[in-house]
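Q: Predict the assembly, please.
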Amino acid sequence: MKIGLEVHVQLPTKSKLFCPCPTTDAPAPNTHVCPVCLGFPGARPMMNGKAIEYGILLAKMLGCTVRDTTWFARKIYFYPDNVKNFQITQYDRPLGEKGMYYLNGKKPIRITRIHIEEDPGKIKRVGDLSSLIDYNRSGIPLAEIVTEPDLSTPAEAREFLGQLIRDIRHTIDIPDDGERSIRCDCNISVGIERCEVKNVTGLKNVERALTYELVRQTKLLKAGGKVVRETRRFDEERGVTISVRKKELEADYGYIDEPDLGIFNVKELAERLKIKESPQNMTLRISKEYGIDERTAKQFVSTSVELAHLFEELAAATDAETARMWTSGAVSAGWKAFEARGGGDTAEVISLVGKFRAGEITDTECNIRIRAFLTGTDTDEVRSGSSDLDSMIGEYLDVNPSVIEDYRKNEKAANRVIGHVMKQTGGACSSADIVDATKRLIEERL
Amino acid sequence: MSATSILSSLSKINEKYQMFRTITSDTEVGEAKFLFSAKDNLTSKDMETCSGSKILEGYRPPFDATSIARMREAGGMLVGKTNMDEFGFGTFSTNSAFGVPRNPYGPERSCGGSSGGAACAAAVMEGHVAIGVSTGGSICCPASFCGVYGMVPTYGRVSRYGLLDYGNSLDKIGIISAKASDLGKYIGIMAGSDPKDPTSCMQPDMGARRKLKSVAVPKDATEGVSEDVRTAFINGLETLKSMGVDVATVEMPSLKYAIPAYYVIATSEASTNLARYCGMRYGHQEGDLSLKFDDYFTSFRSQYFGQEAKRRILLGTFTRMVGFRDRYYSKARMVRQSIIEEYRSVLGECDAVLTPTMPFVSPKFSDISKMTPLESYKADILTGPPNIAGMPHASVPCGYDRDGMPIGMQFVADQWDEGVLFSAAEEWEKNFESVRPEVSI
Ligand SMILES: [Zn+2]
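A: Predicted assembly structure:
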C-alpha cells in the first residue's frame, strides 16, 4: 500500500499573497476584498515578499533544493470561486524540489516539491438553485507540500502529518490554532491504480479517509474488481469517500508562465535565511549528542523547546548525565508553573545545579531551591512540603527494600512507591512532585 | 480644429468617423491644460470601459488606469474612450462590437488596428493626444494608416495597471498624435515605475534625447511590400541621408519568425486573460441562471465574445495544452529570445533599425472582408518584431500613394533608449511635408 500526501498550509502573512487586503478574520463576507483579489480587469498581482521568505524557510526545513530563480504560473480552470478563472500558482519552477524528511528521525519520506499559490474563495450552497460566494479567502497565501508515495499505512500518514505540522509551526511561527490552517489531498493505492481524496481537514480525518479507502480498494481487488483512477471526496459525517470525477475527464490546466510577476532571483535571500531547528531534528540531535535515549529527548522537546535548551545549557555547565537527571526531575516538575508565570531567565537553575555538582549544596536542597525558583514559592514552604513527602517515601523504601532491586531491572518498579504515596497523601501533593521525589530517592539508594 | 471647438462638435465628428466608443458629457474645457483620449481597454472610473467587446458592455471600473491617472494629474482632460478591435484582436479595427472607425483620408478605408479609433482621433482633432496600446503593432499600424506619429515605448516603461490585458508580456501603452513633439512630452508624463505593476518597477530613467546618427535597414525589409510603400520608403531613406543620417544594410534573418512566435505567445496569454469574462462579476450579465455554472459560462461566452476573440481563445488554448506546449508555447519563447539578441547586436552598431511600418496602405473595407485570418495576421510582419522583443519603436508618416493614402516608416531603438526616437521623430517632422486630412462634418 502506497500513500502520498499533498499538504496545504496557510502562510502567516499579514496581507494576502498579491494585494494589501488583510488575512485576518473578516467581519462579514466579501469585506476583505479589492480589485486585485476580485480579479477585476486591469488589476494585477503584486508579490508579497514575506510569503516567499516563509516558503524558502519551509523548503529548507524539508531539505529541498532551492534554485536561484523561481517563477509563477497560471493554472486555468473554470469555477465560480476562482475569480480570474485561473489560479496563480507555481508549475515548472517551484520554490523547493527534491527534499527529504524523516518520520521519527528514521523513515525517509521523499518530498517532491513545495510551492506557493493563492487560495480561491469559498462557495456556500443555499438550496438547490443558488450558491453564495465569499471572496475573503481569495488570494490567501498557501504553501503546498507534495510527498512521494512513501507512507505505508493510514496510521503512519497521520503520524507523519502530525510531526510535519509541528515542524512547520515551529519553523515559520504559526500559532497553534488547532488544525484549521491545514488541508490535505491524499493519494492512495493498494494495487496499481491510485485514487485521490481531495481536501481532507485534520489529522483524524486523514487517517479515517485513508482507512476507508484501504478497505474499499482491498475489497474491490479481492472480489476481482478493478480500482479506477479517480478523484474522491471525504464525507466527514458518514466517514466514507465518494467519487467526484473519473481521472480521464480531468482537466488539462494549460499552464503558462504568469507574465505579470516576472522572475524572482532568490539566491541571496535563500542564503541569508536561516531556519530554526525543527523539534523533530532537535530531538534526534539531543539524543545523539548527549547520549540520552530518544524518549527522554522527545519528552524535553515536546514539553517545550526552551526546556530542551535549558537541558543543553546545563549539560554545557556540568555534564550530560547531571543535566539529564535534573531536567527530567525537578526542572520538568516545575516547568509548567514556570511557563505559566511567563518563563524567563533560567540562569538561577544553572547556578544551583552547578553548586550541587561542586558539593556546595545537597541534592535535596538543590531540588527544593529549583522548585521554589520555578514555581515562585518560598523555599521554606517547598521544604516543609517536600520533607514530608521525602520521609514518607523513605519509610516505604526502608520497609520494602526489594523495590530498589527491582528498579535496577525495570524503572516501572517505582510505580509501587508512587501508588502508595498517592494514596497516603490523598491529593495533597502533585503527582509530578511524587514521581520526581520517588525517582530521586530510589536513585540515591541504588 | 482648436481645442475648444472640438468638444462642441465631437459628437458630430464621431457620427461620421466612429472613432469614439464613449464621449465625456462635459463639453467645457475649463481648467484643463490639454485634452486627451484613451483607448477603450484602459480603465477610467467615470466612464464605461468595454475594450470593444459586448461582453463588457456597461462595465464601469472602480479605478483609473495609471496612465490615465498620470495624464489627469498633469492637467489633462479625458475627452473620451476610443473605439478598437475587440480586446485588441485585429489589424483593421473591424472587429469591434461597437462600429468601425473610418479612415479620415478615405471613409471607405480602415484606420488600422487595433488602436484605430485612437489614430483617427489624433488625425482629425488638433490639440489632442490619444493614448494607444500596442501588443503586436496596434499603435504603429493605425498611425501609419492615418498619417500620424505613433510611438510605443520599451515594455515596462509605462505601467499597465488598469489595462485590460491582451498579452501581458507584450502589451505596451504609448501615444499617437499629429505632432511629433507630443510623443516625448506625453510618454514622459505616463512613464515611471508603479508598484501596482511589478513589470514597470525595474526601469532606468528615460535619459537624455540623443540625435539620430545612423540607421540599419534589414536586407529583406521591403520584401513583399507594395510598390507605393517601397517607393515612399526609399524616398524616406534619401531624406534621412540628406539630414546627415548614415544608412547601412544588415542581415536580420530571425525577424521572419516573429509573427508565428507572436501569435503563439499573444494568444496563449490572451486565452487565459479572457477566462475571467464569464458573465459573473462585471460587465454584461444575462442568461439562464438555473443552468449549471459551466453550461452558463459556455452559453454566455458563446453569445457575447466576437468571432475573432473566439478564434484567438481556441488558438491560445491549443498552444498551451499538454502535448503541444513544448512544440508551440515553449518554442515561441525561445524564438523571442533570439529576436531580442539579434536586435541587440545590430543596435550595438547603429542607433535604430528602420523598415516600412505596414506592407501596404490602408485597405478598403470591401477588400478586408475577403481576407483570410492568416492574410490579415501577415500584415503585422514589420510591426511584430519590435513588439515581441519589447523594443521601443515609432512610426512616422513618410509619403502618400496615388490616392493620397498615407504611408509610414518605423524606427526601432534599443531597450530603454526612447530618447533617440523622440528626437528622430521631431527632426523628421521638420524635413517632411505632411498632408492633413480634410475633416468635414
Ligand atoms: Zn485584495
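The pocket of zinc ion is lined by residues A 16, 19, 21, 33-34, 36-37, 139 (CB under 6 Å). The longest helix of chain B spans residues 326-347.
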